[in-house]
Write a structure and sequence with these properties.
The complex is a heterodimer of chains A (91) and B (153). Chain A is of the alpha+beta class and 91 residues long. Chain A has helices at 23-35, 41-44, 68-77; strands at 50-54, 61-65, 87-90. Helices cover 3% and strands 57% of the residues of chain B. In chain B, a hairpin with a 5-residue loop joins strand 7 and strand 8 (82-95).
């Protein structure tokens, strides 16, 4: 413990098994973490100034819109679950 | 510890700070955000200059969060402007495929043109030992302060 009273560098508050219902979501997060940074910037050029949703494997843009409010419907229109498609703004 | 790579972005203007380059690497990760109505994986920029964790306000309705009567935060931007924004509780989840974390946090929902979530101190960075390694890699080691759970897949 340091002068701020915070515990630093110690184990987390609780360690458990991941809940079964969240396994698909964690797979999506892991796929994005492993693959998104490998996408060439040139491939993102068509998405400049747009909100983009990626497929659950983190390898392919499946919807893009100028307004964030429109992105969610565009994801569903493309046949994907909004809850399993990583979203970002390409500036 | 969960590991992530910086993400490359194209700049609108060459930056003198990086010898006129038009690309730079930014510490950004996708985190799943769960509200009362929905879960969505959203990209955040890790920002220890942000006191609070922030999302564009458009996400509030999409997550099923009613900001009517929500507590208001007041903050001063880097440009000196004073902004007010409503706050609400969400659940965050992150994973690199090897380890996972889940916790609840109070985040601010800022109206206007902000396009990217900011993972600030309160609600996010305060719960991790954060490594920004050589401007290319990010490590997030949960500490005892994490108000949630973590584990290995």
């Amino acid at each position: 413990m340091d002068e701020t009273g915070l515990e630093l560098g110690t184990a987390t508050s609780e360690t458990t098994e991941v809940a079964e219902e969240f396994k698909p979501l964690y797979q999506v997060l892991a796929a994005y973490a492993r693959k998104r940074h490998l996408v060439p910037l040139e491939d993102l050029e068509p998405y400049r100034d747009r909100y983009v949703a990626w497929d659950p494997t983190g390898t392919r843009g499946i919807a893009s819109t100028e307004r964030l409010d429109d992105l969610f419907a565009a994801i569903e229109a493309a046949g994907y679950d909004v809850g399993l498609c990583p979203q970002e703004f390409i500036g | 510890m969960p590991w992530f790579a910086y993400q490359s972005v194209v700049l609108r203007h060459p930056s003198p700070a990086i010898q006129g380059a038009t690309r730079r690497l930014i510490p950004m990760i996708v985190v799943s955000v769960t509200g009362p109505g929905r879960t969505m994986p959203i990209r955040f920029r890790l920002d220890c200059g942000a006191d609070d964790t922030i999302l564009p306000q458009s996400y509030a309705a999409a997550l099923g969060i009613d900001l009517t009567n929500a507590p208001m935060a007041v903050a001063e931007t880097v440009g000196g402007a004073i902004i007010r924004y409503p706050c609400a509780t969400v659940t965050f989840r992150l994973s690199d495929g090897i380890e996972w974390c889940q916790w609840e946090a109070i985040v601010g929902f800022v109206p206007g043109s902000r396009q990217t979530g900011l993972a600030g101190l309160a609600g996010f960075l305060d719960y991790f030992d954060v490594g920004l390694l050589g401007g290319r890699e990010i490590t997030l080691t949960p500490t005892a302060n994490l108000p949630g759970q973590s584990g290995r897949h």
